Amino acid sequence: MFVCGTATALVLSDMLSLLSDVIGISTDYWMVVLASPAFAIGTIVWWTTVERRDSYTYLWGGAFGLITALLMGFLWTVQFIVFWGFEMASIPIISFLILFVLGTVAIAGSLAGIVLMYARRRLG
Do 102 and 70 touch, CB atoms closer than 8 A? Predict the structure, then answer.
């Protein structure tokens, strides 16, 4: 999921580089910083949705990716709100950008979860 998060950040780099500066991530490796919580969040979600249930279906793989991506998106949205306040997030264009990013990462996360489930099933 970390690789998927980094790749998604790269694809959306025009918008996300600005947003990373806005929330206080001022480093040349902002894509890695944005995707880094995926290590912990992805591990916990994978364990609870797939391994603990012993359910290796593509539906659960997609659910894992969706849940992980949305948790990551909400984490960074909360960081934005903490940094700038709720008033800034309630501006229509900012709200649209937040929803656009959440929608994009939800799709990318679901697809990545299905791919990871394929790899998990092949490794058996």
Answer: yes
pLDDT in tens, 4-22: 888 878 887 887 787 788 7
Give CA 20 to chain center in angstroms: 14
Cβ–Cβ under 8 Å, residues 38 and 75: no
C-beta separation of 109 from 69 below 8 A:
yes
- The domain tally of the chain equals 1
pTM, two decimal places: 0.85
Residue 48 has, within 13 A of its CA and on its CB side, a CA count of: 11
Here the tokens at position 73 are: 């998106």
Do 65 and 113 touch, CB atoms closer than 8 A?
yes
The amino acid at 51: E
* Cα 123 from Cα 71, distance rounded (Å): 27
Domain range enclosing 18: 2-123
